[in-house]
Amino acid sequence: MVPPAGPLLCVRLLPTAPWTVSTRPSRTSAARGSNAGAARITAAAATNPNPATTSPVPAANTPAADASPDAIRRRNEIEWALKLEEIKSDANGQWANGAKASSAYNDAQGTAAYAASQASGAPNVEGYGSSNSAWSSKTADAGIEWLELEYARPVHASMVRVRESIGAGAIIKVEVFDEQGGAHTVWTGADSTKGLNFLIVEFPKTAFKTNRVKLTLATNVVPGWSAIDAVQLVGTELR
């Protein structure tokens, strides 16, 4: 039996945008204190210096935006592609260059399909569903599984982006490791990711440098297999 077949990312969650799930970290040994303040949105309003003598400007005759399902889908796809490109181009982000896991489908090792190494590198799964280009646990709905990733450059980390490619929503904990190998939980909770998306975990920049990330999944939370396409560690060498 193979993982269920299917067609072969902080920010904020927009109702019609499919690319990102925003996640707040819990307070942990690596992330004590208050979180960064929420982004502030401001709008500049033009003021009329002399409203009594200035005539009103007629509204522009702009056609309404196409609200058909096909137009909405196309706009979402464009926005998703732009957001993915922004994440891939993040100068402070790096993709894993090595990985190991609690298990893998078909007991895959090395660079075989579904092996832990498939979660290394930049995202390369094109659609939500089973793909041999992503790591997948040995069995579906087995309960606790984990995936640990290594990165080339140790950094003072402030964010982890996890691209889930099937069984999205199964992650329950994200940890980073200090130079002595000590684990620090930067987030734990219920993963609200849906579809081919990024779980984005932000936390106060770590005092230590890290080049290891560990994800813990409860694969029984979401029916079927759970798979990870790629994991990005975001941070800087200088604190």
What does this structure look like?
With 239 residues, the protein is mainly beta. It has a single domain, classed as Galactose-binding domain-like (Jelly Rolls, Sandwich), CATH 2.60.120.260. It has 1 helix and 10 strands; from the N terminus they run βαβββββββββ. Strands 1, 2, 3, 4, 5, 6, 7, 8, 9 and 10 form a 10-stranded mixed β-sheet that branches. Strand 6 and strand 7 form a beta hairpin.
Please write the CATH class name.
Mainly Beta
Q: Assign an overall shape.
A: globular
The H-level CATH homologous superfamily, spelled out, is Galactose-binding domain-like
Reported for the largest beta sheet, the result is:
10 strands, mixed
The end-to-end span amounts to 48 Å
Return the CATH architecture: Sandwich
Task: Catalogue the unreliable spans.
Answer: 4-59
Report the CATH topology name.
Jelly Rolls
What percentage of amino acids are in beta strands?
Answer: 25-35%
Succession of helices and strands: EHEEEEEEEEE
Short description:
The chain is mainly β and 239 residues long.
Break the fold down into its secondary structure elements and pairings:
Elements: E1 20-23, H1 69-88, E2 93-95, E3 98-101, E4 135-136, E5 144-166, E6 171-177, E7 183-188, E8 197-202, E9 210-218, E10 227-236
Parallel strand pairs: 1-8
Antiparallel strand pairs: 2-10, 3-5, 4-10, 5-8, 5-9, 5-10, 6-7, 6-9
